[in-house]
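tool_log.txt
---
The assistant was asked to compare two proteins side by side. It first ran the structure predictor on the initial sequence, then on the second. Raw inputs and outputs are pasted verbatim so the downstream comparison step can read them without reformatting.
(1)
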Amino acid sequence: MDNKDHQKPEQPVRRNLMNDLDAFFQSNPFGDVLKSIDDFFSNHSFAGFPVRLYDTKNEWVVEAELPGADRKNIHIELLGDKVKIAVENDLEMESQHQETGAYSHERRFDHAERVVTLPYTIDRSRTQASYINGILKIHGPKSPKIGHNLSIN
């Protein structure tokens, strides 16, 4: 008789599901796809623009960095205690290759906006904006927020 005929059948190896899941995620199963998506959105203009909110002695100030933006493409809305800044850029380019005569026409539209909530009520009549060297500066007087609470009788 053969020794193989008298051996016990092998037991299946029990696997630990949690160890398998850990190994799966440690092996980078998505091949940096998520990082690529993050990089794409952080490197394109519609991802937003830097905005800074600060106070001076008598005013609140919102500064937005908008290098290269045309003044006519910047839109500001005052909404209660919020400032909404929107920038649109509609760019059209045409070119013709000198040697081949190939003609190219490209159009790109970008839109970015930010909403900043202030700790003050905005006094529209005393709020001003300026745009110098790519920096949009909006400022107004500090006015305490008016409560919108309803009393129960």
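(2)
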Amino acid sequence: MSTQEEPGPLLRVDHAACCRSGACSLVAPDLFDQGEDGKVLLKNPRPPGHLLAAAEEAADYCPVSAIELEAPPG
């Protein structure tokens, strides 16, 4: 029996749209950080299921909708 979780949805970020608000890294620090230029850095494009709520919240909080969740296949 495996103890690993299935990966969650694919996270995509639009770096050109990022306005450097930092909301994503505040809401979901396990998934997002900010680079030296203040733009979003994605730590894991396929986060485990237990971080799905944080990923959804970060996408909701992004003021320019630069974060997108794509449902996993199947």
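---
observation on (2): The CA atoms of residues 28 and 54 lie 5 Å apart. The mean pLDDT is 89.
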